[in-house]
Amino acid sequence: MTTQTAEPARSGLSRRQRARLGRGAQYAIGLAVVALILVKTDWPTFSAAFLRSDIFQRMMPRVITIGLVNTLIYTALAFVFAFVVGLLLAMMKLSSIGPYRWFATAYVEFFRGVPALVVLFMVAYGIPNAFAGFSFPGGTYGMVMVGLGVTAAAYMAETFRAGIQAVPRGQVEAARTLGMSSSRTMRTIVLPQAFRIVIPPLTNELILLVKDSSLVYVVGVTASTYELTKFSQDFLNRTVSPTPLIVGAVCYLAITLPLSMLVRQLERRYAKAR
């Protein structure tokens, strides 16, 4: 006598339908949580503390013309400095000459291990004290460029190194077989491909530099050289309200969100190219 086991009843849904149903349930739960937060929030009290329109009006337009503009200038200067130094360090780290590799490795390990705030402080006050009479070209802007750039260069060096090593070795060997020198091969074959590979992580580094510009307060900036955080903090001290910090955060998002979207587009384009 044989016993028959009953087969489990099937739901009648395909795998795609079950996945779609699961996503729908997740969206529903997320919307329910958001709705609950919105309903339970005491908006009049929250607005009176964090969203005071009178303080926002007092901050305009200087939060844009001074804070936002200086943040962009500091970021751009530091990025250019880090780009040049980081590429040089990457080439040194890949060099066949031992002292070049040792120096580049020591630089990268040191500046990746020391907080950016400490580095900026050492650059701003340590260099002028070590070299009497020295002043940075461009004043505060030059000081910030070096202070933020030396740390970012250490990270960019590793990014460049990884990008250069990702270029197929066969292309380098083919170029050398055709009689190209090593420098010309690097300049015309390797670096153009490496730059395409490292564009997304370099854009991420740019986003980090935007936020690292908030450390500029340690160099003793004046009112005309305030960046977003220092500008917002100054208003916070005068108004005793967190509204200036909210305004500063929105300005940071106005910079970083488009950059984040750019990173995603570049990553998708690179994935298709591969």
Molecular structure report:
The protein has 274 residues and is an all-alpha fold. The chain has one domain: Orthogonal Bundle (MetI-like fold). It contains eleven helices and no strands. Helix 8 runs antiparallel to helix 9. The chain is flat, with a radius of gyration of 26 Å. The termini are far apart. The model has no long low-confidence stretch (mean pLDDT 85).
| pLDDT averaged residue by residue | 85
Note the total helix count.
Answer: 11
Helix content: over 70%
Major sheet details? none
Task: Sum up the structure in keywords.
mainly alpha, 274 residues, transmembrane, MetI-like fold, single chain, 11 helices, cell membrane, AA_ABC_transptr_permease_3TM
SSE topology:
Elements: H1 15-40, H2 43-50, H3 53-59, H4 62-93, H5 98-113, H6 116-130, H7 140-166, H8 169-177, H9 182-212, H10 228-239, H11 243-273
